[in-house]
Sequence to fold (87 residues):
Amino acid sequence: MKLRFVVLLGVALAACDSVGNSPQAQCEREADKDPAVVEVYTRTNGMYTFPYTQRDDLIQATRQAVMRCMRSKGLSPPGGVQPVVPR
Fold:
């Protein structure tokens, strides 16, 4: 019984570790170091949390940084528009 718990715990921890190391997760962590994102943090002086232009600028800069990182790794971003199927 105890061995089963230890094995199950090991499998669960391995699954959690692999999710955090996905290319998208790596790009999301690297986005905070992107110059455009750092510029928004610096320019807004802590006011980027309010739902105004500064927050929108931060969201857009972060999203673009993640997309650039994903493209540099040769990956496409998740989701998107499905191709139109002609009738």
